[in-house]
Amino acid sequence: MAPSKSTLTPLKAARDGDLGAADRVLAYAADALGALAAVLDGEFIRAVDVMLAAKGRVIVSGMGKSGHIARKIAATLSSTGTPAYFVHPAEASHGDLGAIARQDVLLMLSWGGETAELGDLISYAKRFRIPVIGIASNPDSTLMQAADVKLLLPRAPEACPNGLAPTTSTTMMLALGDALAVALMERKGFSPDQYRDIHPGGSLGRALIRVADLMHRADEIPLAREDASMGEVLLTMASGRLGCVGVVDGAGALVGIVTDGDVRRNAGKDLESRTAVTVMSRNPKIAHPGQLAVEALAQMTDNKITQLFVLEAGAGARKPVGVLHIHDCLRAGLG
């Protein structure tokens, strides 16, 4: 039996109301972010300058919902090459001021700029001449009057139907914090390798692992001369346990590879009395130390091989500096 009209009407009304609320929140946020972008000026550049010049950390603080945003900004700064730390303003008054050094910079958030709990932080900063960057919407507020750099937020309505719960205001604070972090990254030339160094865990860290981080080096590289007997090659292959031996010429350049498959294909043909050059596969697939390991893994998978010799960087360079096995990639979580 089909639902009655009286049942559908409340459900439709609820659905329309929910989507209407969502539309309002997103529209307010979009308008506010556009207004924020329009008012950014030299003070934003000054804020970046001050944070870059700091020999210590960026100390971020805020109370309530602004405090939650401040925590996120501190985390984003730290993860993008700008050491940062969140200090709770209430805890600061009970000993955590000791976490702030004269070489630091204070970044403080407050929508109205009159958050009482920020008072002791402001006084401490002024006493020890610690630069203060303020983020607030009231230019005449205590915070903005005390700030050395003033990042003024445009007045915008909260999406809360009562106009009370921070919504639009915290969205602007969060976006402004991200803008500062990205500007600092670009000023510093923060590289993917630096990003990987402080993100070793998770998919981000794994995606940025280089071949040089996983490859076998020096004495672990199984190599043989072109004129080496296959008896020698087999001993080298067995001791290396990588299922391959690289064949090099008199100058040490890689000219071929002998793999388990090559050995099987030539079994029973007086194999041990032959030389490496007569058994090897020429023009083997290679990798370079700076190459992303995920790219090397894809290369092995696409070509249905299990190892790549790693050659030194430089045009025409053919000397092996390492060897990468597919198992090295899988152990690093790349598979």
Describe the structure.
- By secondary structure, the protein is of the alpha/beta class.
- The protein has two domains: 23-190, Rossmann fold (3-Layer(aba) Sandwich); 211-331, CBS-domain (Roll).
- The protein is 46% helix and 15% strand.
- It has 15 helices and twelve strands.
- A five-stranded parallel beta sheet has the order 2-1-3-4-5, sandwiched between helices. A four-stranded mixed beta sheet has the order 6-7-8-9.
- Helix 1 packs across helix 7, helix 2 (42-53) crosses helix 7 and helix 3 (65-79) packs parallel to helix 7.
- The longest helix has 35 residues, at 5-39.
- The radius of gyration is 31 Å and the shape is elongated.
- The two termini are 52 Å apart.
- The model has no long low-confidence stretch (mean pLDDT 90).
Concise summary:
The chain is an alpha/beta fold and 335 residues long. Helices cover 46% and strands 15% of the residues. It is elongated, with a radius of gyration of 31 Å.
Secondary structure elements and pairings:
Elements: H1 5-39, H2 42-53, E1 58-62, H3 65-79, E2 84-86, H4 89-92, E3 105-109, H5 119-127, E4 132-136, H6 142-146, E5 149-152, H7 168-188, H8 192-197, H9 202-207, H10 211-214, E6 223-225, H11 230-240, E7 244-248, E8 254-259, H12 260-265, H13 276-279, E9 281-282, E10 286-287, H14 293-303, E11 307-311, E12 320-325, H15 326-331
Parallel strand pairs: 1-2, 1-3, 3-4, 4-5, 6-7, 10-11
Antiparallel strand pairs: 7-8, 8-9, 11-12
